[in-house]
Amino acid sequence: MIDLRSDTITKPTPAMREAMAKAEVGDDVFGDDPTVNALEAYVAELLGKEEAVYMPSGTMTNQVALRVHTEPGDEVILESEAHIYYYEGGAPAALSGVMCRLIKGNEGIFSATDVERVLRPDNYHFPKTKLVCLENTHNRGGGRIFPLSEIEAIARICQERNLKLHLDGARLWNACAATSISEADYAKPFDTVSICFSKGLGAPVGSALVGSQELMKRARRFCKMFGGGMRQAGIIAAGALYALKHHRERLLEDHLNAKILAKGLQQIDGIAIDPEDVQTNIVIFQTKAIPAQTLAQKLQEKGVALLAIGSHSLRAVTNLMVTQEQIQAVPELVEAAMRS
Ligand SMILES: *Cc1c(COP(=O)(O)O)cnc(C)c1O
């Protein structure tokens, strides 16, 4: 099976498993797990922040960040298809009691002017706006990279208006690999950043939230409250640490494979895609005549798994488990599936 459903399907490599098997562990809730501590120190340094907190999932790091920056009744500004809003089970309302104000972006990207337009004066008729969230790269935006200059312009407005700025950086590694901008440079304008080890990097479990010592003290409290206190988590943290050290540069292979796939798909009658839109490892394309679900089913029978993400749109995500030879075979299989 050529599995392009997501970069979350990646499995630990033999070398990663060896690092996990040998990991020193302790009770992390007591702060005693040396491998978790090493991972948190490494991540904080890499992102240029004071402290990092290792948690079980990206949903948890994002939702802890929302809770850290807000009180019930506050307003959070998000892009209309942001993962935090779209794919996290309604958690902003359930766990933080916040209102979400949405900005319609262009493939997930919006401007400082868009933020200014939705801000309201300080008046007791309005909810208190506390937080702006960006996503880089943007999942439903097809892996689109948020331009650093626009992030900095948004950060200036947040500073003027006393708003906090959070980054959902589950795929920040992909943005860094594609642009050669460092993690620390991307993270600098933000108060908190959430990053993920189990997507393209290929670790089995986990995400981290980074920020100032003061904010991370509050984050640890909500992480425990939301059920994220783990014990001998060094076993999974070792996989994350291994992935950080060894799998970031190879993301460029995934990006090249995504381009090859997009160019191949472009040649097929009945498929709409512009390879120029593919900036990282996500390939979104449209089927003009047949439902996306039908094509996905036919492809499954031919040994290719990908996801229908709209009535006529499908998503393929290149990843560590798929070789360039396999990618080169996909357009022909899509064409055959379209004909059958
Ligand atoms: C995958 C993802 C997350 C976190 O997902 P979990 O499955 O909870 O780890 C957060 N944000 C984005 C943009 C993602 O793609």
From TrEMBL:
CDD domains: TA_like (cd06502)
GO cellular component: cytosol
Domain Aromatic amino acid beta-eliminating lyase/threonine aldolase as annotated: residue spans: 3-286
Cofactor(s) needed: pyridoxal 5'-phosphate
Highest taxon listed in the record's lineage: Bacteria
UniProt record similarity statement: Belongs to the threonine aldolase family.
Protein name per its UniProtKB record: Low specificity L-threonine aldolase
Organism: Hydrococcus rivularis NIES-593
